Amino acid sequence: MKNAVLILIVSVLSIAVGVYLLVTGTPQTGGQEADIQRLFPDLENRLNDISRIRVETGGQAYNVIKDATQWSLPDKGGFPVMFEQVKPLLLAIAQLEKVEPKTGKPENYARLGVQEPDTDSDNVRLELYLADNERVASLIIGSTRPGLITGGRDGIYVRVSGDNRAWLVAGNLDLPMRQVDWVDRRIIHIKPKQVKRITIIHPDGERLVIGKAYKGAAGFSVIENADAAAKKSRDEINSLARALAGLDLIDMRTRSSANPSDSETVTAVFETWDGLQVTATTRQHDRQVWAWFDLGGDVSEIPGDTRKRLEGWSYRLPASPARKLRAR
Q1: Which of 196 and 29 is assigned the larger pLDDT?
Q2: How far apart are CA 326 and CA 328, in angstroms?
C-alpha cells in the first residue's frame, strides 16, 4: 500500500514538473543559444555596412569614417585608422547580451554611469551609422565590472540612447577613447647601431654633429662643436642616437597645418650606414614639440606603411625624444 502511494506521489510530481517546464521554459544559464538576448539583435548582420563611428565623451565628439578602402579620422586630416581597432569593437557591440534590467529613473543613472555624457563625466556615447547616415546603434556605455559574467566576460552597464531603461549586459569592450587610440602610434624606428652620423642645426646657425669612427664602434663622439664636446658627457652624446628608436606620437595633424617658420625650426639629419637619410624638422609652440620627417637616399630599409605615414603629416612628440632632436 505504501509503495503504491509513493509511486502515485512521484507520478504526480513528475507531471507537475513537466507542466512547469512546458510553461516557463528551461532555466537560463547564459550559455545556451536559445537564451541569448542581444542588445542590438540585427546589428551583426549589418556590420559590413557600417561607415561611420561617432564617439562622444567628456563634452566632445569625433568621428571615425570609412571610405572605399580605409578607415580614417576626418578631424586629423584623414589620418589612417587601424582596422584591428575597428573590427573587434564593432563585433563586440553587436554581441552584447542582456543580462538584467536596471533602473529606469534618470536620477539613478549616474550610479551606473549611463547618464548623458558631459564635460564632468567619463562615460561614452557610441553611435554607428550606415553610408546613408542611418543610425543603426546608439548606446551610452557606463561602468564596467570586469569578469562578472560566466566565461570571463565583463558586466557592463549601458543604456540605449532614447530609452529610459538601463541594462547590465555581458561582453568585452575595448573602446578607444581618444582619436590617437585608433591609430598606429609608431612614427619611425631607427636603431642606434644603424646610425652613422647626426647633424643638428639651430636657427641661429649653431651646429652639433656627432658620429662614429667606424661601423660597430662602441659609441659616438662630437665631430663638430668643441663646446659641446667639453660640456656633454659620453652618455648624453650616445643618447642622441636613440631619438628615432621606437619613436611614438602623442598627436598628429596634417603637415600643412603645422605652419612652420624657418626661423623657429630645428633640423636633425640622421644618416645610416646603409645610405638612408632621415631629416626631422621640429618646431616648439606652447611647450609642445611638433615634427615632420623627410626621407632621402636609400629608403628601402623603411617599411612602406611607415613611408606613407611620414608623407604629409606632422606629429607631436614625447618630451625625451623631442629634447634629443633639438639638442645644443
Answers
A1: 196
A2: 7
Q: What is the pTM of this model?
A: 0.82
3-state helix/strand/coil string of 23-55: HHCCCCCCCCHHHCCECCCCHHHHHHHEEEEEE
Cα–Cα distance for residue pair 288/285, rounded to 1 Å: 5
State the distance between the two ends of the chain, measured CA to CA, in whole angstroms: 106
pLDDT classification of 28: cutoffs 50, 70, 90: very low
CB proximity list for 210: less than 8 A, separation 6 or greater: 197, 198, 220, 221, 222, 223, 237, 240, 241
Q: Residue 35 has what pLDDT?
A: 63
CB atoms within 10 A of CB 311: 11
Interacting residues of 22 by C-beta distance below 8 A, sequence separation 6+: none
188 with 176: CB under 8 angstroms? no
How much of the chain exceeds pLDDT 90, in percent? 72
Give the span between the Cα atoms of 138 and 145, in whole angstroms: 21
**Contacts of 239 by beta carbon, 8 Å cutoff, 6+ apart:** 324
CA 323 to chain centre: 26
**What is the tens place of the pLDDT at every residue in 189-231?**
999 999 999 999 999 999 999 999 999 898 999 987 666 666 7
Per-chain mean pLDDT for the chain: 87
**Which residue has cell 543603426?**
136
The answer to whether 127 and 135 have CB atoms below 8 angstroms apart is yes
